[in-house]
Specification:
It is built from eleven helices and 14 strands. By secondary structure, the chain is an alpha/beta fold. The protein has three domains: about 80 residues, Orthogonal Bundle (Arc Repressor Mutant, subunit A), CATH 1.10.10; about 100 residues, D-Maltodextrin-Binding Protein, domain 2 (3-Layer(aba) Sandwich); about 100 residues, Periplasmic binding protein-like II (D-Maltodextrin-Binding Protein, domain 2), CATH 3.40.190. The protein has a five-stranded mixed beta sheet, covered by helices on one side. Strands 11-8-12-7-13 form a five-stranded mixed beta sheet. Strand 9 and strand 10 form a beta hairpin.
Amino acid sequence: MIDDLEGISVFLAVAEARNFRLAGERLGVTRSAVSQALQRLEDRVGVALVQRTTRSVHLTEAGEVFLEAVRPSARQVRDAVQTVREMQARPSGLLRITVSSIAESFLSGTLLAGFIEAYPDIKLDITITDDEFDIVEAGFDAGVRLGEVIEQDMIVVPVSREQRQCPAASPAYLERRGRPHHPRDLQNHACIGWRPRPDTAPYRWEFTENDRDFDVAVDPAVTTNDMGMMIRMACAGAGITFGMLETFQPYFDRGELVPLLEDFCPPFPGFYLYYPRRQRQPLKLRALVDFVRKLRGAR
């Protein structure tokens, strides 16, 4: 039985990382140790699970079948081990969270700084990305996103107030080009747009008029995947950009940017911490959930 289990965690790490060195870093062992453990596993099952080249690592057909078979069981074993450890331990371990780049209130640092002070034995690993993916499949404990894009089978806890999106521009740009009075006027302005990746279309700016939602496909003069870049370009007078009101608020307060078309930008539900339903949640995740709920309740 022990021989059968040996190497499975190594195989899973290689299957997820598709790289022996990265798998070793995740497991805290050398690349050579990963290769040897995987070879022993393949010898026992009698078939190659991984196809290795000098540049890449791919699962064989047998490897794909093996991965689908062992992944759920391995997750159950990890949960069982974690449960036993937590019976006599306080919250500890690595908590992996994926967070939307526009979740300003969560990323401001105040909440997370308070959390690691309250739970010094928990280490946070935060990946900021706007890609949508299965957080369980990717190995994350939880995520933070706008509620509208979270899968229905997830448990959600609010981490922000209601949100608003709006266009914004610098006073210098508005003095030079004038102020738009309706979202359709944006097509006659220089715009600074956002897209998650180079192979995707720019985000369509969303508005509401007479209780009807609609969007405008602006033709950006500048497109980027970085909100900081969008703000800097707008402050420099390059055009009108679009984003979360709370992200722009410090620039509004300093007079560097001016909000636009606010009558067409009603509030909507904000950001949520979300995580999968499990019979027993890891103690480190429960600590974060309880901390967020307590903080929200105190406001």
